[in-house]
Amino acid sequence: QSLPQQKLLTWLSVLECVEVFAEMGTARVWGEMGRWTIIVLIQLAKAILRLLLLLWYKAGIQMSPPIVPLNREQQQPLHPQDTEDNSSGKDQTYVGRRSSRVVRSLQSTPSLQSRHWGSPQQREESQSRRAEEMNQPPTPLGLQETIAESLYITRPLLHLLSLGVWGQRSWKPWLLSAVLDISSLSLLSDLKDLNRRERAELRRRTVLLLYYLLRSPFYDRYSEGRILLLLRLLADYVPGVGFVTRPLMDYLPAWQKIYFYNWG
């Protein structure tokens, strides 16, 4: 990736990290008007950055999060002692004569902090496989797939616009957003030869369609009573589950009030 593209991904990641805090802080300081203003500004900035990545840098299907979190265990370099053993020609492993099991030799055992429970070959294979996955170029998108990804990117803006036109209690913003999400996934489903990260992203978007059961006005009219009843039954009749379900019942009303938890 080029340096400007990396900067766009960094800014996009920062926005996604601070959006909930910005919404809650602005609502506390400037009230409801300030809250919706910051929501529109953040969604507009995110859409502009994503469209630049899609149309200018040909970044393909947008991932979430934009920058993959660092797995320190996978990225940890080999122990210096392993390098010394390699240079001195010592064997790092011992193969059992009867079991043919591969065991690390005592001379090449790393410290406890950097120790892992696989053979050196397994670790090198996993690191090389992960590096290959990270370095795979994005799948080129045709016109249909580009339109589908553009629909997914602009869906938050169209939802906010429909909220301003029809109000928060109307079904039209909910239906419009659902149609755009389903249309985007349908158009992208024809795309073949996706890499592993892109397939995982499409699966994530498909699972997120369940959020429409928790989004107003559907949640207010249909889902709320059933979900709370189910959580209450689990808390009363399943031992130990109440430690999770009772705080969840208290949290759901607060979760409903945060736009970026629901629709972000």
From TrEMBL:
GO cellular component terms attached to this protein's record: peroxisomal membrane
Ranges of Polar residues composition bias in the record: 106-116
Location (main, coarse): membrane
Disordered: region residues: 74-140
Keywords carried by this UniProt record: Peroxisome, Peroxisome biogenesis
Biased composition annotated in UniProt, kind: Basic and acidic residues: 122-133
Entry's localization field: Peroxisome membrane
Family annotation (Pfam families): Pex16 (PF08610)
Record GO biological process: peroxisome organization
Family that this chain belongs to: Belongs to the peroxin-16 family.
Protein name per the record: Peroxisomal membrane protein PEX16
Lineage: Eukaryota, Metazoa, Chordata, Craniata, Vertebrata
Gene: Pex16
